[in-house]
Amino acid sequence: MARRDTAIHLVAGGVAGTAGAIATCPLEVVKTRLQSSACHFGPPGPIASPNSGTCGPLRGARRNFTTAVALPSPLRPRMGLVQCLRHIVEHEGPRALFKGLGPNLVGVAPSRAIYFCAYSQSKQFLNNTITPDTPLVHIGAASCAGFVACTATNPIWFVKTRLQLDQRINGTRTTALQCITQIYKQSGIKGFYKGITASYFGISETVVHFVIYEAIKAHLIARRHGGDKNGDKGSRDFIEFMMAGATSKTVASCVAYPHEVARTRLREEGSKYRSFWQTIALVGHEEGVRGLYRGLATQLVRQIPNTAIMMSTYEAVVYLLNKHMNSDFYEH
């Protein structure tokens, strides 16, 4: 039974993560660009002078990093989500909206599978150890799952971020293999774990998300099914789970967002950012509080549908697999 449950949560987590990643990849690219210190959506070419307010390819920006970050904040182009999407399509082509999708798809299924499996197993262990289904159980399970998933998959997300920050045109686009080779030559295996400290701090976002989600979900089940978690569920239940996931993730993202900016900055090529707290302090000093929330609006636009799709898909797959396996059990 335990092995069957583990397999169900692995499959459900993988399917859910893949569905969300494909649907929201263009928004992920825009968000990552906005979080970066060097990429401000200028046309390809040499890095801008202070009067032009544009930005060239990442490699060029790295050679002139001091000039790039010294630009006063008002001179940096400010774009809305639609403008950013249009700009990427015009200067880099439609395919650029899906930069990093390869590593994302390679990583999201095992990452979500590992996460949901670790969450389920941790939750089951804690429920048998302390008072079951309390916020403390959800916090412990989410923390454990986040730590395991971050540690296992950080190299994949590091490569994805580097690819999304690449602003070169189609003919010179960096492939995932080239990116991996370059990182290894520069920093060895250790280089693939830049930003992992920020990811660990980001576990707080996951904890807030799951505590709120579990509370809303328990309330919905109590209201509609009298607390029976295994009762038959219809389309309305999964729509409500979708809304619960979106609501909980919105609150969590707003609370813990600065860690995402710090993580992206730490993963930049040739970056002057060295550690999590040093990055937070430096961004706050140079760009103010607003700098710590770069890309938040895009993150929320991306994260809400992504989380809604992921959580509802996860709940649906778990429900269907459980129902199918139980029916097979009774038939035999």
From TrEMBL:
Keywords: Membrane, Mitochondrion, Mitochondrion inner membrane, Repeat, Transmembrane, Transmembrane helix, Transport. GO terms for cellular component: mitochondrial inner membrane. Signal peptide: none annotated. GO terms for molecular function: pyrimidine nucleotide transmembrane transporter activity. SUPFAM superfamilies: Mitochondrial carrier. It comes from the Eukaryota. Pfam families: Mito_carr. It is found in: Mitochondrion inner membrane. Solcar repeats lie at residues 4-125, 133-219, 236-320. GO terms for biological process: pyrimidine nucleotide import into mitochondrion. It is a multi-pass membrane protein. Belongs to the mitochondrial carrier (TC 2.A.29) family. This is Mitochondrial carrier protein Rim2. The lineage of its organism: Eukaryota, Metazoa, Ecdysozoa, Arthropoda, Hexapoda.
